[in-house]
Automatic annotation (TrEMBL):
Name of the protein described by the UniProt record: Pilus assembly protein
Alphabetized InterPro entries for the sequence: TadE-like_dom
Keywords, comma-separated and alphabetical: Membrane, Transmembrane, Transmembrane helix
Regions crossing the membrane: 39-57
Domain of life: Bacteria
Positions of the TadE-like domain: 27-69
Keyword field contains Membrane: yes
Length: 154
């Protein structure tokens, strides 16, 4: 009879231990964080990557537009090219995001219409924050923006 009493105690202890695990909530927050944190961090990194890419694209477009507008003051094609190149270099030097050394400047009259002057700026994205992203993401290696302006009005 004594044996039965001890085994029932063990059973009661096992049942009490199992019941306390079912109702325990002490590690639930850690498990929820472990499940949600990687998704949250991936989403946050995506926002940062898109925001920086948008900033580079916008700054590059502003520089190209300013360069095209500066080219209007030139009397002939070589002077327009010189004015547009200097304006692009000035705009890039004043940009907090863009490095002038990473930009290729292409200026000249449009091949299809000689009255249109085109400025193209190409920025190398390999040395920026976006290059830290994993290689599984399809990110571009360069960013190109173009601005054109018609000489002599409409």
């Amino acid at each position: 009879m004594m044996r039965w009493h001890m085994s029932s105690r063990r059973g009661m202890r096992a049942q009490a231990a199992a019941g306390s695990l079912v109702g325990a909530r002490s590690g639930a927050a850690a498990i929820e964080f472990a499940l949600v944190a990687p998704l949250f961090l991936a989403f946050l990194m995506g926002i940062i990557a898109f925001g920086s890419f948008f900033g580079y694209a916008h700054s590059l477009q502003i520089a190209a537009s300013e360069s095209a507008r500066a080219a209007i003051a030139g009397l002939d094609a070589p002077e327009r090219i010189q004015l547009a190149t200097r304006a692009a270099e000035r705009s890039l030097a004043g940009s907090p995001l863009l490095s002038g050394a990473a930009v290729a400047i292409t200026v000249g009259p449009d091949a299809a219409d000689p009255d249109v002057f085109t400025v193209t700026l190409t920025y190398d994205l390999n040395g920026v924050l976006l290059s830290l992203a994993p290689r599984v993401l399809p990110l571009p290696h360069s960013l190109s923006r173009t601005a054109s302006i018609r000489r002599g009005g409409l």
